[in-house]
Amino acid sequence: MAADDGGHSGKEGVPLGEFTLIERFFARATPERQGIGDDCALIDIGSQTLALTSDMLLEGVHFLPDVDPEHLGHKALAVNLSDLAAAGARPRCFLLDLALPRADAAWLAAFSSGMFALAQAHECALIGGDTTRAPSGPGSPGLLTIAITAIGEVDRDRYRGRSGAQPGDDIWITGSTGEAALALAYRRGQIDLPEPARAACIRRMDRPTPRIALGRALVGTATASIDVSDGLLGDLGHILERSGVGAVLYWPAMPRAAIFSDLPLAVQYACVLAGGDDYELVFTAPASSRAALLQLVGDGVGVSRIGQIESVPGLRLRDGEHPGAPLIDVNLQSFDHFVPPSPGPLGQASADVSALEPGADGHGDKTGVGP
Length: 371
Ligand code: ADP
Ligand code: MG
Known about the structure:
Layout: H1 18-25, E1 41-45, E2 48-58, H2 69-86, E3 90-100, H3 105-121, E4 125-133, E5 145-154, E6 170-174, H4 179-187, H5 197-206, H6 212-217, E7 224-227, H7 232-243, E8 246-250, H8 265-274, E9 281-285, H9 290-294, E10 297-298, E11 301-310, E12 314-318
Parallel strand pairs: 3-4, 8-12
Antiparallel strand pairs: 1-2, 2-5, 3-5, 6-9, 6-11, 7-9, 8-11, 10-11
Helix pairs in contact: 2-3, 4-5
C-alpha cells in the first residue's frame, strides 16, 4: 500500500516496522535532555538528572498464560531495570500499571513477592500506578497486561546513550546471549534440551538479571550502550544507526553457553545473534580501556570483546578477528512487533510467543494478540 494510506502500512507493501512507526508518528523535538531514541529518556530537575523508561508485558505476546506469577513479577521489573542499566542509571523508584482478568489473591501474592524481591535488591521503591480489570471477550476471561515505568538517576555529565559509538571503538557484551531463545524454542516444541542446560535456559528466559552493577561500572568508559531485548544484531543496529557508524563482529569471540556446541551452527546463529529476552548490555569503548574492561565483573558475569566499530556503514560478521577472516552470511531478523518473521532454523528466535503452533507445547489454545 502507498505511504499516504493514513499510516496503516509502510511504503509499497513493506510492513510499517515498530521503529519506523515510532520515528514517523511519535518522535518530535523535545526541550528535555533526551527524548525518544535511547533506552531511557532524561529530564533535568535542578541539579539532578532523572532517567525514565517504560516497558509492557502482554499475556500471549511476552509470556504464556501459565507462567509462574513469582517469575513474572520479577521479570516485569527486571526488563525495566535493564533499560536503566543500559543508561548507567541508579534505580530510584517505579510505577506499576496492571490490567487484571481477575482478582486472585494467591496469584497477586506470588507476583508481588517476585517483584518486590528484585525491587529491594536494588533499593527501588514502588511509588504508584494504576489497576483495572482486563475486559473479557466471548469465551475468554481477559488478558493480563503489566506496564512498569522505572525511574533512575544518572550523572548528568557522564550520561551515555546509543549515539556515542566512534570508529575504532571495541564492541563488548556482558554475560552471553542465546539461552533465552533456546528456552523459547524448547517451550514451542522445536528442540529438545537435556538437563541441566534446560533448567539454565528456562531460568534465563523467566528470570533475567538486569546488569545494573555493570551498567554503573561502565559510566565514564563506555561510549554507547543498549540492552539486548530483541536480539543482538538488531539492538546493536540501533547503536550503529544512532551513532552513524558500521561494525564488524567476530563470531568465534561471541560468548555462548556450552550447550550450543551440541547444536547446529544455524541454530547457534539464530539464538546467539538474533534471539530476544537476554537483557545483556552491548556497549562500545575505546581500545585504550581493554585491559581495565577485561577485569570487570558484576551481576555474576564478566564482559567479552566481540567486535569493532567501523566508519563503513552496515554490520558484518567475520569468522575471526583477523581482517582476512571469511565473512559469514547470516540473514537474521531481530524481533519486531509488526514485521512478520522470516523462516529460520527455529522460526523467529525472539521473545515473542504469539506464533505458538496449536498444541505444540500444551498451550495451543493461546495465539497472539493483534496490535
Ligand atoms: P527498549 O527496547 O529499550 O524498551 P524500544 O525499542 O521499545 O526501547 O523503543 C525505542 C525508543 O522509542 C525508546 O526511546 C522508547 O522510549 C521510544 N518509544 C517506544 N514506543 C513509544 C511511544 N509509543 N511513544 C513514544 N516513544 C516511544
Ligand atoms: Mg532497551
